[in-house]
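Moderator note: this is an archived Q&A kept for reference. The question asked for a predicted structure of one protein chain; the sequence and the answer are reproduced below.
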Amino acid sequence: MFGYDWPRFHAAVNDLPAALLLVTVLFDIGAWLTKRESLKAAALWTLWAGAIGGWVAVLAGEQAEDVIEHGEAIHDLMETHETLALTTMGIFTVVLAWKLFRRARLTPPEEAGLRLLSVAGLVTVVWTGAIGGKMMFEHAAGVRTATMKAEIENRAAGHHHEAGEAEGHDHADSTHQH
């Protein structure tokens, strides 16, 4: 798939929808505070794009789950990540569907309820990302065992910086060993 396997595709497509959904909430709050229709329209368009992209990321994540090497720790985090991702997308899909169903003729209580629901969705977006980051950066989810073994051996061997290479870094000596 465009030179990507499922884990790499999931990694490639999961950031933009999260950013769009964050901006959706910000545009919506901005529209509410300023009464600007342009911000309300921007919120709807970013919601559309974020929801579509979010479901692509969820589907890619579902496929990636089946192909990455993992143990119990990653599996438990994956289950939590999956539940949060589905919850997040469920929330934003409900918000989008309700807005489309009502064709922008929302009552003030409906708008307030959807805004509150969107903020809750934003909390789950952040939580989903935090769990995904923990899987990747603390447990190397998606990194093959053979690759991890080779990297551990490479790091154990250390390295040095050539003269001038460490400029701009906090190294006192450009040949500092790690």
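Archived answer notes: The chain has one domain: 6-157.
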